[in-house]
Every structure is written in structure tokens, then in C-alpha cells.
User: What shape does this take?
Amino acid sequence: MDPIALLKADHRKVEELFKKLEDTTERAVKTRTELFEKLRMELTVHALAEEAVLYPENKEIPSTRELGFEAVEEHHVVKILLDELSELSPDTEEWTAKLSVLKENVQHHVKEEEGEIFPKTKKALSAEELDEMGARLFEEKEKLLGHMPA
Ligand SMILES: [Fe+2]
Ligand SMILES: [Fe+2]
Assistant: This one.
């Protein structure tokens, strides 16, 4: 299984959810709440899978070591923003502003992954190692999804 394709597909799904959320206003509380819960679940499962499978590998590869450490910290900021958003009411301008900051953070992070981490990881690992990483990512995601509240 191609780990890069799997992770990129997650990124596209998250972008789609951000786009849908951007089309909502403070009045659309129900839609916002539903879309946000989806976004939160997607981002959480994706981030935890990367932290369990991809970044530990990145820390072993000299060309991605620093990027791997940085990525973990970027996930940390995203998690804080997601937690804060869940505590706020989606019918406020504060929520709208925080969502926009979350989006900027995620966009920056995705750009670094797709522009640097993924290509460098691909270059450093053999086809067999990549295949194995893809399988582990898939398994990890399945396991995490099983633990997520519906
Ligand atoms: Fe990430
Ligand atoms: Fe990612």
C-alpha cells in the first residue's frame, strides 16, 4: 500500500471539509457542528496515525529528522485549536476566526508534508519499506477509527 497516497487522500478530505465549513455562517449552527465534528475526527485519526507510524520513521532518516520533530509540534498546535473550537459556540465570530486560524495552520502543515516530508521519505525508503509503512498506517487508522465516538 502506498503510504503517501493514503495520507494525501486524507489531506484532500480535510480540505473538502474546510471548504464546506467556509460556506457556512454563524446562523448554520447544526451544519457547522456536524461538519466540525467530522473535521475533528478526520484530523485526529490522521494525525495520530502519522505520529504512530510516519514521524518515528522520519526521526530515523537524517534528511527528515528535524521536519519530523517540527511536524509533531505543529500537530500539537492543531490539537489545541480543535479543543478550543469544541469548547466555543459555533454561532460566534470568535469561532469563525479560530476556524480560519486552524485552516491556515493545517494548510501550512500539509504544504510541508507534501512538499518536503513525503518526497524525502519516499526517497529514503525502499519500495518494500514504503509498502510496509502503508500497511501499518492503514491498520493504525482502522484501529483508531474503532475507538472514535460515532
Ligand atoms: Fe501531519
Ligand atoms: Fe498529514
Notes: The mean pLDDT is 96. The chain has one domain: 3-147. The first helix runs from residue 3 to 22. Residues 7, 11, 46, 50, 113 surround fe (ii) ion (ligand 2) (CB under 6 Å).
